[in-house]
Amino acid sequence: MKRKSVYSNVLLMAVSAFCCTGRPAFPQDSTPPSKQQDQPKPKPNTDNATQSAPDQPKWDPLRAEKDIEVGKYYMNKGDPDAAIDRFLDATEAKPGYAVPYRYLGEAYEKKGQKKPAVKAYQRYLDLYPKADDADKIRKKIEKLYKEIDKEKAER
Fold first, then answer.
1. Residue 60 belongs to what domain range?
2. pTM of this prediction?
3. Is residue 23 one of the residues assigned to a domain?
4. Whose CA is closest to 151, among 113, 103, 100?
5. In whole angstroms, what separates CA 55 from the centre of its chain?
């Protein structure tokens, strides 16, 4: 028992001696301040992966899924403009993929832009005519057309 406490005390003294010794402070960045100021400012992010990073491939299905996920987040937050941008990015990242067009239609509809909403919904149905929600989308398109005609008649 006594031997165990002796080893514990020696170990404790060694650790505390190591921690308490003064060590020289090293700067985090060894570049002199004058050189840091001469560096060019980074290009602003345009929130479009293919524009801000031209080396990125146009066709990127994983990025399309991420754009849809982020777009849905923006829709839930009540920012349809940001959602529209992300859904459009998804249509570019994975051409021929119907899902972003459905969400794009919802975002345009939420924003009150009926014609682009109809166009997006129609594109969704063109790409995925046997969708489970195809009848629901067709009814939305009919409703939007009626609202557009009603607005034209009021003018």
1. 49-154
2. 0.64
3. no
4. 113
5. 19
**Residue 122 domain flag:** yes
CA gap 57, 48 in Å, rounded: 12
In a domain, 110, yes or no: yes
In three-state form (DSSP H/G/I as H, E/B as E, the rest C), the secondary structure along 18-79 is HHHCCCCCCCCCCCCHHHHHHCCCCCCCCCCHHHHCCCCCCCCHHHHHHHHHHHHHHHHHCC
- Separation between Cα atoms, residue 109 and residue 103, nearest integer Å: 10
Taking only the tens place, the pLDDT of each residue in 64-74 is 999 999 999 99
Query: Half-sphere exposure (CA, 13 Å, Cβ side) for 137?
Result: 26
CA-to-CA distance for 5 and 15, rounded, in angstroms? 15
Residue 14 falls inside a structural domain: no
- Overall number of domains in the chain: 1
> CA triplet 68, 109, 84: central angle to 5 degrees?
35
CATH of the domain at 113: 1.25.40.10
pLDDT in tens, 18-54: 555 555 554 554 555 555 555 566 555 455 555 555 6
